[in-house]
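Friendly challenge for the regulars: who can give me the structure tokens for this chain first? No prize, just bragging rights.
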Amino acid sequence: MNQQQKNRAAIKRVAVIAIFSALAIVLGLWEIPWPGSIIGLRLDFSDVITVISIGIIGFKGTSIMLFIKALLRFLIIRLGAQLGPWAGMFEEFMALFASFMYVFSFMILKKVNKAKNIFIKIGIDVAFTSVFLAVTMLFFNFLFSTPMYLYFLIGADNFHVTVFSMIGDPQYRGALAGINVKDISVFGFFIFCIVTYVPFNFVKGISSALVGTITAARLMTINYVKDIWPNKKLEKENVNDTNIE
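First reply, four minutes later:
Bragging rights claimed.
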């Protein structure tokens, strides 16, 4: 590949990152309130674009896209959040963390999922990603994010980074009692997080991974960088086509 072809490829990558960032922001505008959620969980499908992006422009390009999306979403949406800009920034950070769980999940799958049949491969990808997202987000929300988010939600006096310091704060204990946490202890809060977050993230993981992997598989024929389903024959054909041009 000569310098001119490298420049064209770089321009394409920048353009695709910009397109994916815009699509993710637009999809994120439509949020569905999670039934029965008492802490404001909302289901959106912006991470469908994350999964598609992993397949089309790889992990590095997707990481850049996620940071661009997070910055723009904060400026456009979160800056005017009802709980204030700091709460909006924290909400966007939580969303960014969840999006990177898809990236890490597919990084693992790229090494371990060697299935030849595309349907089996997609099935393994979807199953692993949904479980990986549900488990990692459970512990992240239990240990760190929910205690920190409650600070903004209840307007608390003290900010707690972990559940272990939060659970002894009388102000937080009263707030937990107000949202029907039956056993106000570390274990009781863990059970509350399981009931609250696992079904939500499992459904989000299945829907985003399923739609994203199927769409990425359909777009493989126009892929010009390493994707999550390497196709050496296709890569060779693309290189030959480029050389002919």
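The chain has a mean pLDDT of 87. The chain has one domain: 3-229. Your move, everyone else.
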